[in-house]
Every structure is written in structure tokens, then in C-alpha cells.
């Protein structure tokens, strides 16, 4: 087993990367730019090669041109007029492949063996499936039967979400993959775990003497996690209408963020120890008893026509690929409990939706109020302390406290310490995919989801989905460009709380007080 800090001393291993779905959106927007950043930063040695695989026919030159364009458009570093570009591009190769044909994989083996020798890769193979999950099983079988796994180095399989549609389908998928790969060889991506500030949650919690002692139900009133998006379903209507917000964002990103907030400090800095702690959180999630329980704790909504930045936008039901009577949710909010000694009684409020007013990801920790009628609280209503992790698009940490109003007049004002990491000149944090690709190539599985995490997350979500099937009428409409259904406000109001504004944009509520910014 490898200690994470030790891993930091090494770059990525020598690796032959196989990108299945190399002409698709994910490869273009995220993977090629990620390779380039890693290369520019010296994190990939010269002993690597990439084989792009897709059905479309393409020469190596055409493929390299695709890669160049994607880097121009999406990378943190631009490839233009860059001396390193030519040497970088030489590592990219393309093969047109029908993933259902075993002969094609046998041919791929020939190419892989040749490249392995040319670049002195030592037999290490990373198979990245940027493909629909239905294909994971058959590609795995063909990799095995085509002889691609007979190599003297390591082999790893990197796969994208959605990992199944519910627990039974995820189990089936897992069984197929596991006929070919061991669990330790499977790297399941949840790209939120690759985000700088999501990884920072752990550090802020466990490396600061003044947070850890307060991190429990004695001092924390509630935790709020918001993943809001301004986009609608774009061209993904067909996929999205079968998934919905709960499966698309809840089962993975949101539950993963709960685990990062709630887990116990692992005893060792090793990937499996960290993942063990996350699993314990998922195991402690309070399961909704029945449909009534779901109804009282989970709100689902769907956007109707509205306005975004002054422009009219259509209702979800009028989006391309979406049936006009769709009952799929584009929003959900839920009150979730982690039933263990640390968290008993602390609600975790989570919400996500499409076509909300701002694109943002934030986690707010609301601390308990000072006792009422004691000293200052006797004279004035004190605002609760807040600690906010700003994940996206701003990356930073925000702390709200109470302090004396400057001047001779008596008064208490909320002040903010607002650390904006992404505003600092010179900090150009790596994209999530860069980190994850790098981690997979050096064998650090910390920020990938293990099978037991995936299974427990599905179990939790399936319970909600089945209640929704029984009560399909409980779908609240909300106009595009608004903060979602009223019922989501009630969810907190009935506990005496409110959603805190995100990025200071939440209209009609308390505005972030920033009279003094600590430097
Ligand atoms: C994906 C979802 O997992 O995450 C998308 O399938 C969503 O629907 C996306 O838009 C959001 O990711 P990010 O990094 O832009 O917040």
C-alpha cells in the first residue's frame, strides 16, 4: 500500500494510455487538455504514449490536429508556437476500432506492443473508457480476449459515471468488469473529487486546531451543500430524461461531498483508509422509511419556461430529446442525516438544479448560535458563524464572524474573512481531470470511488426513486432562472433555518456582510 505523501515525490509512471471514445466531447474538452498540462508541468515523462480509439477513421496527423485544436480551445496552457508541442504531439496515435470486433482488439494489441517498445513503457497500460456504460463490459472482455492485458506491467481501467442506473444495474456492470479486472485496478471517476476545493475540505478540517474540535453536533447547526447550474440539459436530453438530477448529481457528486464533510479522520494517509472512512459515512446515512418520509424530506422540481440573463429560455419539457409529459426532475433538495455519534441530529441540506440563477458549488457550515440572553446576545441578535467552502467557480474559503462595529457607537457587525484562492495571481489550479488522470497513472486511488461506496450510494438513492415512482404527482415546477421550488425553502424553514446565499447572489435574503476583509 502506498502513502499519499510519498506518492507526491514521483511523477506519473511510464504509461500507455488507451482512450476509448477519442473523438467524443469528454476527450476533446477535458482529457487532451489534461495531458497537455501534465506534460507542460513535467508530470508526464517522455516515456508515455496515447492511443486514441473510436470508430471514425482518422490518420495520426488528423488525430494530432484534433488534439491541437482541443488544447487551443480548452487547455490552461496554449499549444500555439510552442516548441514542446511537436514533441508532445508525437506521442499521440490513432486507430479506428469497432469495439464489438475481437479482431480489432487483436490488431490493437500489435500496435500497443510496438508503442510499448518504442517509448520504453514497460508494459503499463491504462484503459480510459470515455464511453457509454453499457459498453464497459464488452470492452473489458475484448481487452482480455484480445490479449491486451497480457503484459509485464500494471493495467488499470478508468471509467466514467453513470455507473449504472440503480443498484441492480450497477451490480451487473460491476460483475462484468470484475470478471476481467480486480477492484484495485478499477478507477471510477467522480470528477468532483478531483476539484481543488473538495480535496481541500479534508485539509482544512484535519490540519486546523480550531476546526476539528468544533466539527460535530455540539457546535454545528447544519450543513448546506449547493450545486447550482445555469445550463439546461443542452444536447443531453435523451440521457438526462432517463437519469434526472438525483441520479445525475445526487448519487455521486453530492453524496461524495457529504462524505468529505462528515468522515472521521483516517488513521493513516493511505487511499484505502480514507475510502474506508467515507464508506462508514454512507453506511450511516439515515434511510428514508417510506414514501411519506421521502415526501417530507426530499423536494423535486422541474424547470418551466423562464428567463436567464434577460433572455427567454424554454421549459424542460420543450427541450430537445425530452418528452412533452416528462416527469423527470431537474432539481432536487433534500434533508439528510448521518446517524453516528459525531453527527446525530445535524441536518445536511443538499440541493442541485439546472437553470438556476448562478453556476456555483458551495458548502456552508452553519455553527450553532451563541446562547440567547447572555451578554451580547441580550442586546442584539447575533448572526451565526459560517464557514464556507467555495468550490466553483470561485475557489476559496469564507469565514463569517461577529465583531465590534468600528467607532464609538456600540454595535456588533458580521465581518468576513474571505480567502479567494482563484483570485490570487499565479495560482492556476489544475482542472479536476488533470489531477485524476495523473493520480490514475501513478496509482493513487484516493479520489476515485470504490465499489462499496457506489453500491451504498445507489441503495440510498433507489429508496427515494421508488417513493417518487409511487407519488409521481409531487413534482414542483419552478421558472427557469429562479432558485427552485418554494418547497425547498420550507424544508429548512420548518427547522428554523434558511439557505444561505451562494456567491452573494441569492436575492431577497441576507447579503454577505463584508465591511472588513481580513488579509
Ligand atoms: C456531470 C453531470 O456529472 O456534472 C452534468 O452529468 C453536470 O449534468 C456536471 O452539468 C457538472 O459539473 P461541473 O464540474 O461543471 O460542476
From TrEMBL:
Alphabetized InterPro entries for the sequence: G6P_DH, G6P_DH_AS, G6P_DH_C, G6P_DH_NAD-bd, NAD(P)-bd_dom_sf
Catalytic activity: D-glucose 6-phosphate + NADP(+) = 6-phospho-D-glucono-1,5-lactone + NADPH + H(+)
Annotated TM spans: none
GO MF annotation list: glucose-6-phosphate dehydrogenase activity; NADP binding
One Gene Ontology term, aspect cellular component: cytosol
Pathways per UniProt: Carbohydrate degradation; pentose phosphate pathway; D-ribulose 5-phosphate from D-glucose 6-phosphate (oxidative stage): step 1/3
Enzyme Commission designation: 1.1.1.49
Gene Ontology process terms (BP): glucose metabolic process; pentose-phosphate shunt, oxidative branch
Keywords in alphabetical order: Carbohydrate metabolism, Glucose metabolism, NADP, Oxidoreductase
Domain Glucose-6-phosphate dehydrogenase NAD-binding intervals: 19-200
Residues holding NADP(+): 21-28, 55, 98-99, 161
Source superkingdom: Bacteria
Record-annotated Glucose-6-phosphate dehydrogenase C-terminal domain positions: 203-500
Binding residue positions for substrate: 191, 195, 229, 248, 354, 359
Active-site residues from the entry: 253 (proton acceptor)
Family under the similarity heading: Belongs to the glucose-6-phosphate dehydrogenase family.
Function per UniProt: Catalyzes the oxidation of glucose 6-phosphate to 6-phosphogluconolactone.
Identification of the protein by name: Glucose-6-phosphate 1-dehydrogenase
Lineage: Bacteria, Bacillati, Bacillota, Bacilli, Bacillales
Amino acid at each position: 500500500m502506498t502513502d499519499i505523501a510519498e506518492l507526491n515525490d514521483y511523477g506519473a509512471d511510464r504509461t500507455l494510455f488507451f482512450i476509448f471514445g477519442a473523438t467524443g466531447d469528454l476527450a476533446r474538452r477535458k482529457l487532451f487538455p489534461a495531458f497537455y498540462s501534465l506534460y507542460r508541468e513535467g508530470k508526464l515523462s517522455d516515456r508515455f504514449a496515447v492511443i486514441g480509439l473510436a470508430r471514425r477513421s482518422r490518420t495520426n496527423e488528423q488525430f494530432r490536429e484534433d488534439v491541437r485544436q482541443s488544447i487551443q480551445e480548452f487547455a490552461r496552457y496554449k499549444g500555439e508556437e510552442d516548441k514542446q508541442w511537436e514533441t508532445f504531439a508525437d506521442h499521440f496515435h490513432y486507430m479506428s476500432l469497432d469495439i464489438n470486433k475481437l479482431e480489432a482488439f487483436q490488431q490493437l494489441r500489435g500496435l500497443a506492443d510496438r508503442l510499448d517498445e518504442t517509448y520504453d513503457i514497460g508494459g503499463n497500460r491504462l484503459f480510459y473508457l470515455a464511453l457509454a456504460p453499457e459498453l464497459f463490459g464488452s470492452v473489458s472482455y475484448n481487452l482480455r480476449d484480445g490479449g491486451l492485458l497480457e503484459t509485464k506491467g500494471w493495467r488499470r481501467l478508468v471509467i466514467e459515471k453513470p455507473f449504472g442506473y440503480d443498484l441492480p444495474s450497477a451490480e451487473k456492470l460491476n460483475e462484468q468488469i470484475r470478471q476481467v479486472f480486480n477492484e484495485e485496478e478499477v478507477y471510477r471517476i467522480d470528477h468532483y473529487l478531483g476539484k481543488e476545493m473538495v480535496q481541500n475540505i479534508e485539509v482544512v478540517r484535519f490540519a486546523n486546531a480550531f476546526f476539528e474540535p468544533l466539527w460535530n453536533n455540539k457546535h454545528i447547526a447544519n450543513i448546506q451543500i449547493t450545486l447550482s447550474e445555469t445550463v439546461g440539459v443542452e444536447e443531453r436530453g435523451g440521457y438526462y430524461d432517463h437519469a434526472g438530477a438525483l441520479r445525475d448529481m445526487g448519487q455521486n457528486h453530492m453524496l461524495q461531498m457529504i462524505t468529505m464533510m462528515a468522515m472521521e479522520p483516517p488513521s493513516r494517509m493511505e487511499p484505502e483508509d480514507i475510502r474506508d472512512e467515507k464508506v462508514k459515512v454512507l453506511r450511516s446515512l439515515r434511510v428514508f422509511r417510506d414514501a411519506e418520509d421521502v415526501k417530507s424530506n426530499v423536494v423535486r422540481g422541474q424547470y418551466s419556461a423562464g428567463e436567464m440573463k434577460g433572455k427567454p429560455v424554454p421549459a424542460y419539457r420543450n427541450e430537445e430529446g425530452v418528452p412533452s409529459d416528462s416527469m423527470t426532475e431537474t432539481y432536487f433538495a433534500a434533508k439528510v442525516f448521518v446517524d453516528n455519534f459525531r453527527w446525530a441530529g445535524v441536518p445536511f441540506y443538499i440541493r442541485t438544479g439546472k437553470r438556476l440563477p448562478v453556476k456555483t458549488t458551495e458548502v456552508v457550515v452553519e455553527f450553532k448560535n451563541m446562547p440567547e440572553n447572555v451578554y451580547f446576545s441580550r442586546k442584539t441578535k447575533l448572526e451565526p458563524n459560517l464557514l464556507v467552502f467555495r468550490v466553483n467557480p470561485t475557489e476559496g474559503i469564507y469565514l463569517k464572524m461577529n465583531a465590534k462595529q468600528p467607532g464609538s457607537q456600540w454595535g456588533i457587525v458580521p465581518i468576513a474573512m474571505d480567502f479567494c484562492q482563484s483570485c490570487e495571481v499565479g495560482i492556476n489550479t489544475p482542472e479536476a481531470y488533470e489531477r485524476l488522470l495523473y493520480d490514475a497513472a501513478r496509482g493513487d486511488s484516493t479520489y476515485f470511488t470504490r465499489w462499496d461506496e457506489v453500491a451504498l450510494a445507489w441503495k440510498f438513492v433507489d429508496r427515494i426513486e421508488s417513493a417518487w415512482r409511487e407519488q409521481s404527482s409531487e413534482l414542483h415546477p419552478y421558472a427557469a432562472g429562479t432558485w427552485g421550488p418554494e418547497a425547498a425553502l420550507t424544508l429548512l424553514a420548518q427547522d428554523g433555518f434558511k439557505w444561505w446565499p451562494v456567491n452573494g447572489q441569492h436575492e431577497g435574503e441576507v447579503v454577505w456582510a463584508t465591511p472588513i476583509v481580513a488579509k
